[in-house]
Amino acid sequence: MITSVAHIALYCRNIEKSADFYTRVLGLRHLFTQKKPDGSLWYVYLHAGNRTFVELFPISDAAEKPSSAAPGVAHICLAVDDIHETASAISALNWPLEANPARAATATGRCGSLILTASVSS
């Protein structure tokens, strides 16, 4: 089912300092910086090796999502063999899906997207 970690998205208090740490100190490669339509920063995209990436989001984006208003992991994206098969297997185990599988353009081409609830409530 899971083949690798595709990317991890992090909320950061200081994007410049965080990007400096991940690139200059840890050696990740800056691929691009994505802006919002209003010109403000959306995220910084870094290459962590092979087909794994790190997305750095400003903490202001986390503030728009009350459940994620602190620095730290925003989400983890796992690559899978077959997104529809994976969604079916997860649903069969009664784990809630927030949305049906979707395809989206990414820095590495087209990929599937499947959103799961982040925590166990009981």
Largest sheet: 5 strands, mixed
CATH class: Alpha Beta
Q: Characterize the overall form.
A: globular
Seen as an oligomer or otherwise, the chain set is single chain
Give the key terms.
122 residues; two-stranded antiparallel sheet; disordered C terminus; 3 helices; 2,3-Dihydroxybiphenyl 1,2-Dioxygenase, domain 1; alpha+beta
Brief summary of the model shown:
With 122 residues, the chain is of the alpha+beta class. It is built from three helices and seven strands. The protein has a single domain (2-113), classed as Roll (2,3-Dihydroxybiphenyl 1,2-Dioxygenase, domain 1), CATH 3.10.180.
Describe this structure in words.
It is a single chain. By secondary structure, the chain is of the alpha+beta class. The protein has a single domain (2-113), classed as Roll (2,3-Dihydroxybiphenyl 1,2-Dioxygenase, domain 1), CATH 3.10.180.10. The chain has helices at 15-25, 59-63, 83-92, and strands at residues 2-12, 29-35, 41-49, 52-58, 72-80, 102-106, 109-113. It has a five-stranded mixed sheet with strand order 2-3-4-1-5. The chain has a two-stranded antiparallel sheet with strand order 6-7. Strand 2 (29-35) and strand 3 (41-49) form a beta hairpin. The longest helix is centred in the N-terminal third of the chain and has 11 residues, at 15-25. The radius of gyration is 15 Å and the shape is globular. The model is unreliable at 118-122 (pLDDT under 50).
